[in-house]
Amino acid sequence: MNIPDNLRYTKDHEWIKLLEDGVTAQVGITDFAQSELGDIVFVETKAVGTKVAAHGAFGTVEAVKTVADLFAPVAGEIVEVNGGLDDAAVVNSDPYGEGWIVKLKLDNVADVESLLSPAEYSALIGE
Amino acid sequence: MPFIVNSDAERAEMLAQIGVESFETLIADIPEEIRLKRALDLFPAMGEPEVKRLLEQMASNNAATCDHVSFLGAGAYDHYIPAAVKTISSRSEFYTAYTPYQAEVSQGTLQAIYEYQSVMCRLYGMDVANASMYDGASALAEAALMAVNITGRNGVVVAGKLHPYSRQVLETYLEAAGERAIVQNSIENGIGSVASLESLVTSEVAAVIVQQPNFYGCLEEVEAIAEIARKNGALFIVMADPVSLGVLEAPGNYGADIAVGEGQSVGNAQSFGGPYLGIFTVKQAHVRKIPGRLVGMTKDKDGEPGFILTLQTREQHIRREKATSNICSNQALCALQSVVHLSLLGREGIKEVASRSMQKAHYLADRIAGIPGFALKFSAPFFR
Questions:
Q1: Which of A69, A92, A110, B223 has the most CB atoms less than 10 A away?
Q2: pLDDT, mean of each 10-residue run, chain A (127 residues)
Q3: B318: nearest CB among A42, A44, A67
Q4: Alpha-carbon Rg of chain A, whole angstroms?
Q5: Is A8-107 a domain of CATH 2.40.50.100?
């Protein structure tokens, strides 16, 4: 399983990457998550401007036979939604790159530090 | 009457086939203390001619449209149903199959439903139709819930004269889903007043509902109503008589977001109130919020066209309490009868049924109005 070193992870199999501006972060689902879900056909998120609490649901990702909720890794405001998700399969093929889902303006940048490290996430999925 | 065998020999054969000793084995789980310990209180056994005569006597107490002219109307209509409809829908492959939706073994059923969906899209001028709901009234109620779900708003406005039974079902569904206000617009001269509607459709309103033709058979001012809904970000729900669409404009062409209807009048018997058929259609933008089953067309692994249930992630067996609805059924047989009926009529046929029906209604109205002491209650244009 691909678990990039420069990201933080959640127990719900999301990843988060702090961006260069230091206040915004990109969020998506992990390689493990996309492989468990199978072919992803649709991603739906709350609108730009919505404020989400840590672990609050901000959308859903749909595979043919299942739907999974997306949970915000930390509290923040949705500032951008990936327009490339019209081709939802990109979440399967490039979950950490083109398959990113939302960008959040973080309420508290330090919150990211309390999330799982790559090593901790790897242990979580039993690798 | 049909002949159904039930001889001792057949019973023995059935028991042997399923590997059971006797009939008593099949009811062994029913406790001894609650079993009836006497014969049923029936009159003595009769021969076939006597049974036939008795049942005919009982049936003659009914007044049916085969020997009475009915002007009851109000949502259930006596249109002629060609014999071919019954012949096709009575085929045991259609008639006896229970929940035949597994794609590997039910291509015939799935295709028939797909054709039904396609026909309803054409008739209503919409992009997507589901595999049907229980009846027109519950289809309307589900449409209102769908609008609440899509807009995130709570209010529902009934813009015109809705059938009182539809109104009751709407109230029941909305109440069960949490207190939601239904506001009734005022009715003037038999139709909803567009002027008074303006102030009722606020930014808290999820849906504006209209029945076309309305409960009085009168034509509501649907374009003006559609515009009021659109301006305020509410969804426009139209409940339309399918036969009327042979002459009236299709709801999809005058701004309906969701169009529903009662399918009894196209190919289904009046049957003292049911089973009926809930037609449910939407614009493409709302396809993921639609309730009920959806049949889709796809390609199998050899690239051949085939039919399947699709977008099942809307439904409760996957999304559970977040499903778009708790319905997990449809009216397959009634839908089949509708699509056979409409296929036989074709575009020209449905036009002719609608025209004749409308002309007869107007003829009747003129003749009654011509009787001293009688006058038409409303001057609004009407269909039925």
A1: A92
A2: 91 94 94 95 94 94 90 95 95 96 94 92 90
A3: A67
A4: 13
A5: yes
